[in-house]
Amino acid sequence: MIDKTQYLMDTYNPENISFVKGEGVWLWDDKGNKYLDTLAGIAVMNLGHSHPEVIQALKEQAVKLMHVSNAVINPLQIALARALAKATGMEKSFFCNSGTESVEVALKIARRFGRSKGYVNPKIVTMKGAFHGRTMNSLSAANNPAQKKLFSPMMPGFIQCEFDDINVLETLLKRTTEVTAVLLEPVQGEGGVRPHSEGYLKAVRALCDQYDVLMMLDEVQTGFGRTGALYAFQHEGVLPDVVASAKGLGNGFPIGVCMAKGVAANIFKVGDHGSTYGGNPLACTVSLKVLEIMQRSGFHEHTKEMALYLTEELRTRLKNLSCVKDIRGKGLLIGIELDRPCGELKKEALRNGMVINVTCQNVIRLVPPLILDKSHCDLTLEVLCKLIKVFSRRL
Q1: Is 253 in the active site?
Q2: Beta strand pairing call for 158-161 and 123-127
Q3: Is 272 a catalytic residue?
Q4: For a tag site, which of 224, 287, 319, 365 has the least CB within 10 Å?
């Protein structure tokens, strides 16, 4: 493996492996070894690697037009925005290149909304345990004391609230002036795969309506089929004011979108925000194809079926291990919380032909391609349960 420290900034700590090919749920390294991918680029490759229809759409568009500036009308961008509005109930979209960027758009909408109401210091309520990205604004919105110390001073105007506690949120909104928005993840992915309880989003929606603040969801990880619906908010039949999305939206091609409705959809004026590459023809073509595939009959039902099978089998096979504290999640975003740090399991999984991820030091996060079948689930269970059982016997 090339010594990455010679040419790359030291921002990642990659495993000593290089993948050179992917197909469906499988990856191959530069030595020809095959791996079952249960990470999917961290919830990105929702349709799996090298999906033939996505590749074909990309090829056909690449020979026509790869890029055009947003100084002219882009019909593909309009088509994607229309398709997303129809699929979600949102109204307008701003396209960018990543999840962090889509969150930045949401935060700017919230500040602009507060200013329109005459607020001197608009405040945004965010959740403890949240992760929204690594730009200064998104880092300020999240709850990572170590990172905040390194890059302080943080951006002002953020108030932390307990996640999934509607009473604490109500008290905060009642007692705090100039609150302009509430931002949360339906499932805290980096925060340990923590889903909200049933009815929570409906209760948040009601509070936001009561106090005239924007309900904003970060669905970068939960969006585009990950939880068994196109977006997680659709499980409860609520409509947020703003939704940030990326990852599975492009199935590996960089694209992000911030969708909004009502006053939030019309708060920006010309020049308030922009993106050179945002919504380029290649990205929009890929996303249109991904959306088309996910809207086919049975797609989300398959995700829910595989998620139920995988989760129930994990709970059955690991129920007698004292080191397993909890198994939780939503759809095919599953977390296995252990009683101690377990980062070493990533390397051991690779040695056993499987790619996994560990977040919060002690939570194994499974975010496989949504196209996996029962045989892939069985292989995942076989390898992972064996690794955890061996791990449980260590001091």
Answers
A1: no
A2: parallel
A3: no
A4: 319
- Mean pLDDT value of segment 234-259: 98
Q: Which member of 123, 247, 261, 330 is catalytic? A: 247
Per-residue pLDDT band at 251 (split at 50, 70, 90) = very high
Spatial neighbors of 390 by CB under 8 A, at least 6 apart, are none
DSSP 149-179: HHHPSPPS-EEEE-TT-HHHHHHHHHH-SSE
User: What's the whole-model pTM score?
Assistant: 0.96
**Mean pLDDT of the 74-98 span:** 98
Q: Is 247 a catalytic residue?
A: yes
Among 113, 131, 163, 233, the one annotated catalytic: 131
pLDDT of residue 308: 98
pLDDT digits (tens, 9 = 90+) for 187-245: 999 999 999 999 999 999 999 999 999 999 999 999 999 999 999 999 999 999 999 99
Tell me the mean pLDDT in the region 284-308. Answer: 98
- Residue 199 structure tokens: 């009815």
Tokens of 157: 């105007």
Q: Which has the closest alpha carbon to 164: 199, 120, 189, 134? A: 199
What one-letter code names the amino acid at 105? V
Amino acid making up residue 353: G
217: nearest Cα among 192, 194, 188, 191 = 188
The candidate with the shortest Cα–Cα distance to 307, out of 224, 368, 389, is: 368
Q: With left for phi above 0 and alpha for psi between -120 and 50, is residue 300 left, alpha or beta?
A: alpha
Which of the following is catalytic: 37, 95, 218, 253? 218
Domains of the chain, with CATH numbers?
Answer: 4-51+297-392 (3.90.1150.10), 65-294 (3.40.640.10)
